[in-house]
Amino acid sequence: MIGQVIERRMAGQMREGIVLLDAVETRHEGERRVTLFFAPKVEPAQIQPPKGAVLQAEMSVGGAPILVYSAPEGRLAFQTPKGVIDVMPAEAEFTLMEGRDTIAAVRNGEDAATVLTWLSFHADQQRMTGAVILDRARPGTDPEFARALRDGLRESGLDITVILLTSDQPLGYPDAPPEAHPFCVPEAPGKDRMEIPPPSPWDSPLAALSYYEIARHRFLAEARAVANIDVHDLVATGPETIFDSAVAARGGLSPSSGGIAILGACAVVSRRALPIIAAFSSTRAVGDNAGALPRRNCPRMRSGACCEWAMHAPMRRARRGSIGIWHCAIRRDRFHGSCRNPR
């Protein structure tokens, strides 16, 4: 098969400071479930559902609320102090990544040639067959990127399905400069002497960490395994792929397993603040032991979108920061469909 690039957009909107990033529709035992993903600092109590919609779960990722409702069919009008948010959620498309070894990543200014090299390397070295890439570019500012990526993937002959997800809302920190600026590197010396550019939320460091929850709710619930790395990082070849490691691990990968290395990690200064290797499996159940590293603030999900994404063990350290393994798992024979309230 020939690879394909599929373009999708978040169903987001803003009402005087209340920012909805995306809305996703799934089904649970025939019942419609709608998940709303809000930007950080939105108070869940401000959101009032329409008649017939019932809140089933409330959670938070990086201060960004996620609200799950059972809801009637059609458009949904949610009341807020700033007015009505009229929502037509995007339907989940799990079949696009079903059974694939997939990478979830963020593109913030990288050109198509860089992304194609990254895709080709991991298809060859890690047997990757799918990728969900959040394109941080402001709509309309880089129309050639998707076209160049699609043409290059076709010419390469790689059997990779790539989903480019875009947003009508800026997803970076509102008061931070572009991510490429040295000020955004935690270890950068002389920050007090830097001339800091104006805030640039369209390409500042990612603040909407719930993107990864959006990706799994819309596309990744049936993927075999999912890894999270940057589109300029290359994962070195090991005795097995990172995806096989995630599927095989029962309690997360241990430090004694040798870890995972990023090629050039000590030679290249990344503009990403915290490069993290992540590997998720959607086929096994795990316990609550998170090893030596803190658990990510993710909900337990009763769905193919998995029950929990948590960092389990420290990997090898590079000068650019810590590298860790995340492991996400669910027993499909027990849970499927919706999420439960984690509280």
Q: What is the count of β-strands?
A: 18
> The biggest beta sheet, please?
6 strands, mixed
Outline, from the CA principal axes?
Answer: globular
Total number of helical segments? 4
Round the mean pLDDT to the nearest integer and report it: 76
The secondary-structure class comes to alpha/beta
Low-confidence segments, ≥5 residues, pLDDT <50?
A: 252-258, 264-343
Order of helix and strand elements from N to C terminus: EEEEEEEEEEHEHEHEEHEEEE
Largest sheet: spatial strand order:
1-12-11-10-13-16
Q: Nearest-angstrom radius of gyration?
A: 20 Å
Total domain units: 2
Beta-strand fraction estimate: 25-35%
User: First CA to last CA: what distance?
Assistant: 45 Å
The helicity comes to: 10-25%
How would you summarize this macromolecular structure in one to three sentences?
The protein is of the alpha/beta class and 343 residues long. The protein has helices at residues 112-125, 144-156, 211-220, 242-248; strands at 4-9, 13-15, 18-28, 31-38, 54-61, 64-70, 76-80, 83-87, 90-91, 101-107, 130-135, 161-166, 225-228, 234-235, 262-263, 278-281, 309-314, 324-328.
Can you walk through the features of this model?
A hairpin with a 2-residue loop joins β5 (54-61) and β6. The strands form five sheets. A six-stranded mixed beta sheet has the order 1-12-11-10-13-16, sandwiched between helices. Strands 2, 3, 4, 5, 6 and 9 form a six-stranded mixed beta sheet that branches. Strands 7-8 form a two-stranded antiparallel sheet. The protein folds into two domains: 10-91, Immunoglobulin-like, CATH 2.60.40; 94-328, no CATH class. The chain has four helices and 18 strands. α1 (112-125) runs parallel beside α2. It has helices spanning 112-125, 144-156, 211-220, 242-248; strands at residues 4-9, 13-15, 18-28, 31-38, 54-61, 64-70, 76-80, 83-87, 90-91, 101-107, 130-135, 161-166, 225-228, 234-235, 262-263, 278-281, 309-314, 324-328. The termini are far apart. With 343 residues, the protein is α/β, with parallel strands linked by helices.
